Amino acid sequence: MIVLGLSGLPNSQRRLRETNPDIDPLDARITQGLDSAAAIVVDGVLVAAASEERFDGDKGTGALPVQAIAWCLAEAGVSADDVDVVAHGFDYDRHRRAFVLNRAYFDEVLSSQTVRDALTAAGFAQLAEKLTPVEHHRAHALSAIVPSGFDRGLAVVSDGMGEVDSLSIFRFVGTELEKLHTQPIASSLGILYSIGTRFLGFQFNNDEYKVMGLAPYGDPSRYREVFQKLTRFDHDKGSVVIDWPSGALSDAEHGYPQARALLEEQTFTPAQPDGSIQRDEADFAASMQECLTDLLVDLVGHWLEKTGETNLALAGGTFLNCKSNQSIADLPALQALFVQPASGDDGTALGAAYAVAEDLQPVQVPFDPYLGARYSADEVRAVLEARPDLQWREVGMTDEYLAAAADDIAADRIIAVFHDRMEFGPRALGNRSIVARPDGDRIKDRINSAVKFREAFRPFAPAVHVDDRDRLFVTRGFDPDHYMLCTAHVRPEAKAALSGIVHEDDSARIQTVTPGLNPTFASLLEKVRDRTGTGCVVNTSFNVKGQPLIMDPATAVDTFARIALDRLYIEGFVVEGTPS
């Protein structure tokens, strides 16, 4: 059986722009159906998955993932005619009656027919005929349940909104799901955090990770009462309650102005972000982060206790918040935790495919997120031969090659690495990464200002060899550590050696690297350890501000030539700057 999974709503962004031609760029992502992706499951095995943004360069696009579809089919060695089912990670059709007052919007944006029409227009009429819609939160849940390898447990989904819900709790045995609890959109934790993000002058549904990075610089007590008045956890019902005043969630396409005005009345008038750390903004971020974390810990703890389950699977954009995930991981009732690396809507492409596949096979544990495109040495060489402005040499994927990369890191150079298959999800996990020595001279400032062109307060994450993790960090070692989805405390005695990745609260968003999951990256870290005594590097995504994670050699070489990297290590080639 061959199943193609899809995410995104192809008309959603276009309609938002057409109906709001003067929309503030900070509000341009207040719409459903972003982060479109495709995934393909062949005979019960996940073969490939990729987001459309990696192909077209439009970060977070919700357009029909035409190029991702074509690539998935090619990677699986099948044609569109061979596909048995096309699974789409939204099922608004069952909620048609809820949109009786906005039928035109439903028909143009939300109906499954819009996806069929887009597939047909793109030349995939045979796929359009096979489309099966899948409930959004069911797709999210299965995207975490299946890769977790758990035979049973609790699944929690939290995002901005699905079709009509913002949070769902399932008990599962195998892939059989029992829905225990749901919450309406008015009580959305995702929307609350995104409104706070927009209040601080960052882009809604895109820049929440910046707020998470800002929070440790603030004092959560300063605005704690504001969030305590607005939110609470109902222990009797096991539900999060958000007491927005009537009308606060109206006029979404203009950034929820009434909700933001409410926050301003109770706090302060935020300044335009300039990359610096301002006390009011940092304190607000800290208070909101504390609120989110406390509510999620209460919610998850309640349902673990109520069900007696000890395995937990998480998905939905809320669970890209690694600070909250750390507190969840610390719950004593928990014995195992998995968070889907692509917890945003891109992950619903594979969750939807899992929902309709009838022959799922046991998965590799830990889950392998390297599901994207790979390129041969010949393809890389062809790109480099067309660039007379660069120096390069071919070494091959050898110990000598990795040793040279480790020498550069030990010498406090900043390099990019590009190897094997691209990561699925928003985090770079060593195959499309910029890496450096974690105690390098002014390493955060150098990367932020000259390489990534981003805000100075944003932290960098470490990639650490599994053999070094426990002497450097305090962590329970759950699966999210493999995917930069959970923070860990830096041990006091390791802070000097890790100064470039220790955040203001002595935490770090770690990636534990194992030879089984990524042998090339693990070998590089072993060689770094031989030279520095620590098998750990700064690991940030190979891209610049506003650019998706780099997929292909041409984009990698072009980006390298435009930023202040010392060298690029790409599929056995060592690339330097302009010849002297």
UniProtKB/TrEMBL annotation:
Residues 35-353 form the Carbamoyltransferase domain. One of its GO terms (molecular function) is transferase activity. Keywords: Transferase. It holds the Pfam family Carbam_trans_C. It is an enzyme of class 2 (transferase). Its EC number is 2.1.3.-. Residues 406-576 form the Carbamoyltransferase C-terminal domain. PANTHER family: NODULATION PROTEIN U. Belongs to the NodU/CmcH family. This is Carbamoyltransferase. It comes from Actinomycetospora corticicola. The lineage of its organism: Bacteria, Bacillati, Actinomycetota, Actinomycetes, Pseudonocardiales.
